[in-house]
Amino acid sequence: MAKKEEDKIKKPTSSYEAKDIMVLEGLDPVRKRPGMYIGGTGVDGLHHLVWEVTDNAIDEAMAGHAKNIIVELLPDNKVSVFDDGRGIPVDIHPHTKVSALETVLTTLHAGGKFGGEGYKVSGGLHGVGVSVVNALSEWLRVEVYRAGGLYVQEYKRGKPTAKVKKIGTSKITGTKVIFLADKDIFETIEYSVKRIMERLRQQAYLTKGIRVNFIDRREDPISAYGFYFEGGVMSFASHLARSKKPLQEDIFYVHKQYEKVEVEVAFTYVDDIETKELSFANNINNPDGGTHVTGFRSAITRTLNNYARSENYLKEKDENLTAEDTREGLITVISVKLPEPQFEGQTKARLGSPEARPAVESVVNEGLKDFLEKHPQEGRRIIEKVLLAARARKAAKAAKDTVMRKGALEGLTLPGKLADCISKKAEESELFIVEGDSAGGSAKSGRDRKTQAILPLRGKILNVEKSRLDKMLANAEIRSLVIAIGAAIGADFDVTKARYHKIIIMTDADVDGAHIRTLLMTLFYRYFHPMVEAGYVYAAQPPLFKLQQGKEIRYAYSPEEQAKLSKEMEKKGTVTVSRYKGLGEMNPDQLWETTMNPENRILKQIEIGDAEAADHLFDILMGDEVEPRKQFIQTHAAKVQNLDV
After folding, report:
1. Which residues contact 109 (CB under 8 A, 6 or more apart)?
2. Does the pLDDT value for residue 599 go beyond 70?
3. How far apart are CA 368 and CA 381, in angstroms?
4. Does residue 23 form part of some domain?
5. Structural domain for 517, as ranges
6. Does any domain span residue 9?
7. What ranges in 406-528 are assigned the alpha helix state H?
8. Does the residue 406 lie in any domain?
9. Same domain, yes or no, for 139 and 197?
10. Residues with catalytic annotation?
């Protein structure tokens, strides 16, 4: 019996032999697992295709061979990218025995960036860029203008339809790639003009002297934009600070080579408490920073401490300024160009090259020391700013210690106005932030008590644009929100301790409601940033209209939807249309059915871009600078609809 049982256990339930090992050849791995190469198949992944091709064009410009780049959105969602660089080689590759062009487009880890003299500095490292675009495109055409000839090759889903063919002559050099993303792979193949333009503007700032043109040919008349900046990252920093009140008349700027690393840094202090720090390596944005950012922070902190002591702003008994102090109100662009940089992951979110830190640290340290000596007035304003930040940091720490008592963190002293949910599982718990006591009452009565918590806020929360953390934590509404979430705030925020994995901003569908929603989005962007990054923050979309015909009741979420529904329902008789002015006008059942029921509700997930846009809008509308606000109102006045009076 024991022997039979042993045989039974050892017998394999499924085949796992050599024949079961799948070997994916050519570009098959990309089509099988696209997320490994472009991060996903959603909107971000789709635009990553555009970045891969434009990065190749930028590499030609960084190598000094291209001056013009043209990106076009064509009808039927095709994309065209042209650069007037050298053109991809078309002669036969000695190893693959096919043209170098076909090799680059059909072979992973093939390209001119692994050595040799093709590129000393480039953003593409793995040689997977254009081949991945080819693999994930339903159709792709490449045109090469080289050595007096025009060469063409087309592909379908990564496979060439014919060999490279010379179809004419050419007086220019360059490469044009036209592709149609595969709709069988991507969730959408609709491109965002705003997203592409922001990226192209960024690249033009980082590669001074090149001209980048963007043309949208999808509709008639076509729209065209051009970007050209002689000032490089100094122009970039100035652009980022455009809606702020500057504390410096002259932007700090340094551009210098340190061993094999080219360092270009610009920064300016503004009268604000927010920090904006953009970092790039070989023109690739590194949102998670890296060694170049570490070098910058170290240099600016050490140099400002030395300057503050030498000028007697800091006495012997005073403690040093921290990196947090020196970065408040700082708008910075850090760009390094280096051979063979080390990134973390294919999306290159963080630079890991150890040589970048001493390069940036040395260049910024020397450059800032010289800047402060030549600009004593700027030095005084900067030091006064960071000393104020240091005092505020100490006050904020005291305020946080008061608010984040042990009992509050453990949920033992939750705010009285919070109607908490029964569940203690954060992944299934939702916190509705509701505008006003009236709507709060309806929400509390209509909710699912097991998973839905309600926190009513009274009126508009404190304007985070003009308030430091210590003042914010003295505000009862913000303090209630901090304690309810239970994961601290600001630099101390720990997203793993959040008591809810869905924070839903539920405000009225009017001007006041939009204002409160913008305030809350800005608050989360600045002080609960990891919640937005994790995708935990949402905005509810309550209906604007209630339509009733006899016993039938339907809801519309926009004027257009209301008009369409009215036409449909009028076939059965007279339709009564009511416009909701606020959530408090709904009874609990209506609020549940339209806005809170997971089966029916419409939620908009707040992404970093949404919160960043809200934050920038708030800078304009609520900041101290009058001119940006005036320009905004003049630009958008004609578009105003349903202005409450």
Report:
1. 126, 127, 128
2. yes
3. 14
4. no
5. 418-542+591-635
6. no
7. 406-409, 437-446, 469-472, 476-485, 511-527
8. no
9. yes
10. 435, 508, 510, 512
